[in-house]
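so the lab meeting is tmrw and i was supposed to have these ready like two days ago... anyway. pasting both below. for each one the top line is the aa sequence and the line under it is the structure tokens. i havent really looked at them closely yet so no promises
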Amino acid sequence: MTEFWLISAPGEKTCQQTWDKIMTATTRTNNLSTNNKFNIPDLKVTFSSSSSFYKSFQRAVMSFDAVHSVVKKVAQYMADVLEDSRDKVQENLLANGVDLVTYVTRFQWDMAKYPIKQSLKNISEIVSKHVSQIDNDLKARASAYNNLKGNLQNLERKNAGSLLTRSLADIVKKENFVLDSEYLITMLVVVPKTNYADWQHTYETLSEMVVPRSTNLLFEDQDSGLFTVTLFRKAIDDFRLKARENKFTVRDFQYNEEEMKADKEEMTRLSTDKKKQFGPLVRWLKVNFSEAFIAWIHIKALRVFVESVLRYGLPVNFQAMLLQPNKKNMKKLREVLNDLYKHLDSSAAAIIDQSAMDIPGLNLSQQEYYPYVYYKIDCNLLDFK
């Protein structure tokens, strides 16, 4: 299970006592969850009043959903780029070189990226700018690669499918045609396999000017065959009409060696360009997924810190904890947590409609509310199973 509950509770005499208490309640006497301490450093709190504190909090968390969105977009695009190797997507979605569960359970604040001497607002802006740059780069790279991929797919579709519509460049050869003749022309006709015998018996009589014994089968797919037939140019319209009446389809095709060569060269070029871009693009996605995911978890940590200060007060004294619930015991785990911490906010247990909450500075309308600080972290970021 890739779902985690990131919670915090106020320190008792020591934060270690808070930790020991939850371990006893959820792990040592039962099997409700696997727990890890979640290390959040003492971030800079320099608010002169409650109102400025709330205001700065709102600014600090405004990028939260946007960061999560970018993380998911990079992960999903990785899956799109890997195409037939989607089973390998998860092994490429790493954070700091380790799998996501390991990164989250062993989380350490990155002091180099997000200096804790900076204000909460500044840290949030650093995250926002970094992730916005990733998002913009992703859009540009995805657009370029998708255009290339789309053009290649269009050409590939032309070289596949029914004989009625597909490109014939890789099927016909120069020797199949009468070329440079003032009077004669070779045409290509698609004949259903069930009508082969009819074609052989009737093609010479579809027009008065068909060259006898001039038909040859060049290619066949599951349903039809592609035949040549040579006739006089002035009989083209009459031949085409009679062929259609007999359920034979004349393809509009003129043999042009230069055009067919150009089509083949274009497909080769696009295929080569796609292969050249694939490796660097996957590497970029791996690096920037890691960067975005790390930023997302730091934003989670930032929210836990700020909300813990809002709820439990200053000086900073709380224990952040990461719980990985046992799927079968999630309801029981929630009950145990509520029993442990209901004294922190007795009204929380009775809250059903989240909109009933009105804590200044906190927008909880889209979030579950409990007596303890709670945020969910779901490491399953892909939309397919």
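ok protien two:
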Amino acid sequence: MATAPSAKLTPLLKDELDIVIPTIRNLDFLEMWRPFFEQYHLIIVQDGDPSKKIRVPDGFDYQLYNRNDVNRILGPKASCISFKDSACRCFGYLVSKKKYIFTIDDDCFVAKDPSGKEINALEQHIKNLLTPSTTHFFNTLYDPYREGADFVRGYPFSLREGAPTAVSHGLWLNIPDYDAPTQLVKPLERNTRYVDAVMTVPKGTLFPMCGMNLAFDRELIGPAMYFGLMGDGQPIGRYDDMWAGWCMKVICDHLGLGVKTGLPYIWHSKASNPFVNLKKEYKGIFWQEKAIPFFQSVSLPKECSSVEKCYLALAGEVKSKLGEVDPYFIKLADAMVTWLEAWNMINSPGEKPAMTSLPNATSKK
């Protein structure tokens, strides 16, 4: 006797998480992610020509924003949203009303673990975010909150409650996330190592955050997840996610929040052109040698008790210290302030600007 098909299980945080995708092309890659994404709401930020029609596969619940929408919603403050750069994704963070964000690039596909099982990257990110981080003391069995692990001998009991996790940073199989010089000298290199581990990035330690497989608690750290002023009209590109990562980590360390890295893996399918990348990265390769020591030494005032206060103070430090390196950083610091103003405008209680997409740019299941 035939049985009725079982109903789909409700995925974790279904009504509390948005998936943000920056793109310039049709989103056919979503077909591979359908089993994992179909029940979630997508925010798609279309980069480039707003008159170009972007096709989204049927069955997904999404909102599609283009540059016209950015300008309409933010007005003069739209200047802080990068154009012709994946940094445009942070507009999705801005307009989301959910507690959590997962962001992924459109050249990232479902990876498989060593047993051949498809990896539900989103589920792993959620597990990372919902368990504490060990920011103040390193556990040699990596994440002690994972099933089958615990705190090792000698780990202080007073620190075992951990810290709230603000960011979950995933990794990639196949195409590594290399800079242009490394791409040029290792054009055929592929990452085939699957390391079954999640670890907390220790307090006081910076890391190069990659935005193509990333999740965060928007309520905990959202105002600091600004991907900078990059791309068209700017002297630098491909440092958007790293800039956000340095700013975010300094603020997390100050406020006692945690950052995890490791699982989940995605399959990064397409290597970008190293010569194009070198043109975008050229100044950044020099500037990072000044920027990283700045972030390693910057100190936020004790009275900075919120992410917004921290970010405003950090913008002031960027202007005064890195502004000496190049005038670009003065412009970037001003954009950081504008971003914070836009965040408060969109997200302040009682403020409800018209944020719906153009009629032909919104689709529901």
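from a quick look at the 2nd one: Confidence is low (pLDDT under 50) at residues 1-6, 351-361. The CA atoms of residues 108 and 204 lie 30 Å apart. will dig more after coffe
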